[in-house]
Amino acid sequence: MDAERDHAKSELEQFKVDIASAMKQMASLDKALGKKEKSLDNIRNQIEQIQSGIAMKNDEMGTELIDQLTSEERDLLSRLNPEITELKEKFLLCKNSRIEIETRKEELETNLSTNLMRRQKELEAIISSADSKTLPLEAESKEQELKSSKRSLDELTAMLKANVDAINNFTRKMEELKRHRDDLKALEANLEQTVQDGAKDLEQLMSSRSMHLAKQEECMKKIRDLGSLPADAFETYKRKNKKQLQKMLYDCNEQLQQFSHVNKKALDQYVNFTEQREQLQRRRAELDAGVARHFREVFSELVQGGHGHLVMMRKKDGDADDDDNDEDGPREPDPEGRIEKYIGVKVKVSFTGKGETQSMKQLSGGQKTVVALTLIFAIQRCDPAPFYLFDEIDAALDPQYRTAVGNMIRRLADMADTQFIATTFRPEIAKVADKIYGVTHKNRVSYINVVSKEQALDFIEHDQTHNAS
C-alpha cells in the first residue's frame, strides 16, 4: 500500500508538472494569439487599403483611357484583367479564410474561458479528492486532450501561414499593378500633351483659313461689283501676272472715269426686273384662272341648278371708267402702247340656271351672301388659310342654302385640314360642328361653356320659337 501510495504521489506530481507546463503553453498560446490578433488587425488594415486602392484603380480603369492606348498596351491590359480577377477571387478566399480563422479563434477562446478553465478546476478538485485508481485514467485522458489541442494549434498555425503567404503574393501583384498604372498615367500625359499641341496647330490653321476666306469673300465682292463680265474674262486674264493686271486695271479705271455718270448695273437690273414682272404676271394669271374656275364649281355646289362666273374688269391708261369693259380672256395688244390695268372683278350669276345672268346690284341680300361665300370658298381652294372666322353668315340665307353652306364647311374641314369658327343661331351649321360653345350673359359677365349638340339645337329651336311669337 505504501508503495502504491508513493507511486500515486509520484504520478500526481508528474500530473501537476504536466498541468503547469500545459498552463505555460496556454499562456504562450494566449500571447501568440494576441500577436496573431494584432497581425490580423494589421492585415485587415492592409486589406482595407488594398480594397480602397482597388476601387480607385477600378475608377481609373473605368475612364476612357483605353481609347488612347496603343494596340500592345491594350493587349497587355486585356491579359492583366484575368489576373486581376483571379487575384480578386484569391483575395475573397483569403478573406473567407481569415473569417474562419477568427471564428475558430473565438471558439478556442470561448472553449478556453469556459471549458478548459472549468476543467482545470475540476481536475484540481479531482486531484485533491482522487484516489490512486482513478488518477492514471484521468492522466491518460488529459494527455489525449493535450495532444488534440496541439494538433489543433498546429493546424491553425499552418492555415495562418498559408493566409500570410497568400496576402504577400497579393501585395506583390498589387505593387506590379501600381507600377503598370504609373506607366499608363505617364503615357496618358504624353498623349494629352500631343492632343494639346495638335489643338493649337488646328487653331492656327483655322485662323489662317478664316483670314483667307475673308480675303476670298472680299475679292468675290469686288468681282461682283464689276457687273456683268464676258464669258472668257477669267481665261483671258488668268495667264497675266500681277504687274500686267495692275497696269490694265489702272488703264480701265482711267477709261471708266469718262462713264462715271452711267449706271453700271442697269442691264442686270433690267433683266432681274423683267424676270420678276414675268413671274408676277404668270402668278396673277394662275390666280385669276384658279379663282374663276373654283368660283364656278363652288357656286354650282351651293346653288343646285344655278351657275355663275367671275369677270376681271380691266381698262387702259386714258380710257374713261366703263363698268361694261369686263371682257375676260386674252386681248390684242394696244397699238398705242397703253398699259392695261385691273380695276376689279364683276360677278355674273344665275340662281335658276335659266335666262340671263344677274349682277350683284340685281341680287337680294341672301343671294349676295351666297355669292360672297362662294368667292371666299373659291379663294380658300386656290390659296387656303389655316382657319376662318364667320360671324352669322347664315343669318340672311334660306334653309336650302344654309344646309349647302354647312355641308361645304364640313367637307372643307375634313379634306383641307382647315379650321372654321362660326357664330350662328341656325341649326344647319350646328349639326355639322365638331365642338359647340354656348355664350351666356349673367350679372354683366359673359360665360363660355361647352355644350352638347342636342343642347345647342334645343336652344336654337327655343330661340326661333320665341322670336316667332
UniProtKB/TrEMBL annotation:
Gene3D superfamilies listed in its UniProt record: P-loop containing nucleotide triphosphate hydrolases
What residue spans carry the region label Disordered?
A: 314-338
Q: Which SUPFAM superfamilies match?
A: P-loop containing nucleoside triphosphate hydrolases (SSF52540)
Q: Which domain of life is it from?
A: Eukaryota
Q: Does the keyword Coiled coil apply?
A: yes
Mention one GO biological process in which this protein takes part, according to its record.
Answer: chromosome organization
**InterPro entries, per this entry?**
P-loop_NTPase (IPR027417), RecF/RecN/SMC_N (IPR003395)
Keywords from UniProt, A to Z, are:
Coiled coil
User: Where in the numbering of this chain does the RecF/RecN/SMC N-terminal domain appear?
Assistant: 149-444
Coiled-coil boundaries: 5-60, 139-197
Q: Where are the transmembrane segments?
A: none
The UniProt regions of compositional bias labelled Basic and acidic residues, in chain numbering, are 328-338
- Spell out the protein name for this chain: RecF/RecN/SMC N-terminal domain-containing protein
Report the source organism.
Answer: Oryza glumipatula
